Amino acid sequence: MSDARKRKWGDRRDGYKVKVPGLQTVMACLMPNRTDCECYLNDKIDITELLVYLEQKNAAHPEYRTTLFHCFIMALTKMFRERNRMNRFIQGGTMYERYDISVAFVAKRRFSETGEEALMFMTPEDTDNLDSISKKIVGDVRETRKSEVATGGVDELLDTFAAMPKLLMMFLIWIIRCLDFWGVNPKFITDGDPNYSSIFLSNLGSIKCPAVYHHLNNYGTNSFMLTIGTMHKEKVIMDDGSEQIRDFVDIGVTIDERIGDGFYFARSLKLVKYLFAHPQLLDEPLAQPSNFDYK
């Protein structure tokens, strides 16, 4: 989803400089640390229609299963596509907007206490839909779980740093943080690093854990962290006064408040809920507008 906009003075390799109102400009300088500007949200999303849709979809292709997690990735990616301000970050006291939408998450190599974690990173294309996203995730995770140890990418880079003498490692990390401030870190360091993603996801429901608030990091450019909890049922009073037992999933969201305002954030979350209530929209290409009425 690369932007065709030509790079200008002040732009970074991963995003272009954005002119913002005075309040946001001053906030970026007064509160330079992302972890000092974390805004937390705990909410629940009705997934009743989505679960019915997934049951029908998975019956049609039993060779691989589309999961709730895959739907979250597609819905959030679509939200970032339509709500471009959510894809912004602040680094070096300046606001930038990414050229691409990127999603990062952690996959366990083995579901055990000793099983190592692998960092997964993907950049959906405008032509992607739920099916293609699901196939990519299933394929990448299967490939990752073939090995008990890192086989390349950011995991292998981290192992290399960890093997260094501590003083040398600390010195190199200090240099990397300085380069990060000015947005000139080399690609082999930033590519595939979740700290440079649009959104970092954690599917805690897969290990029967409730949604939590996960901190952001000052290093990198990630401004949005979302955890997915366990599914549960609740009794709901419908608009017509009737009672229904509905399926819900809890989420915990942490966001850098400097990149937008509460009004914009709230409307963006409404779009995600709308997509889950109309799951057939997830099968449309990413570039296809949802036509959601924000009124």
Report the span from N to C terminus: 28 Å
Helix content: 25-40%
- Rg, Cα atoms, Å: 20 Å
Order of helices and strands: EHEHHEEEEHHHHEEEH
Biggest sheet record: 6 strands, mixed
Q: What's the β-strand tally?
A: 9
Question: What is the CATH homologous superfamily assignment of one domain?
Answer: Chloramphenicol acetyltransferase-like domain
Q: What is the CATH architecture term of one domain? A: 2-Layer Sandwich
**Order of strands across the widest beta sheet?**
2-9-8-7-5-6
Shape: globular
Structural class: alpha+beta
Outline the low-pLDDT stretches: 110-115
- Residue-averaged pLDDT, rounded? 88
Task: Report on this structure.
With 295 residues, the chain is of the alpha+beta class. It has a domain at 39-152 and 196-283: 2-Layer Sandwich (Chloramphenicol Acetyltransferase). Helices cover 34% and strands 22% of the residues. It contains eight helices and nine strands. It has helices at residues 22-30, 48-60, 68-82, 130-144, 153-162, 166-182, 187-190, 262-277; strands at 15-17, 38-46, 88-91, 94-98, 103-108, 117-122, 199-203, 224-237, 243-256. The strands form two sheets. The protein has a six-stranded mixed beta sheet with strand order 2-9-8-7-5-6, with helices on one face. Strands 1-4-3 form a three-stranded antiparallel beta sheet. α3 crosses α4 and α3 packs across α8 (262-277). The longest helix is centred in the middle third of the chain and has 17 residues, at 166-182. It starts with 14 loop residues before the first strand and ends in an 18-residue tail after the last helix. The model is unreliable at 110-115 (pLDDT under 50).
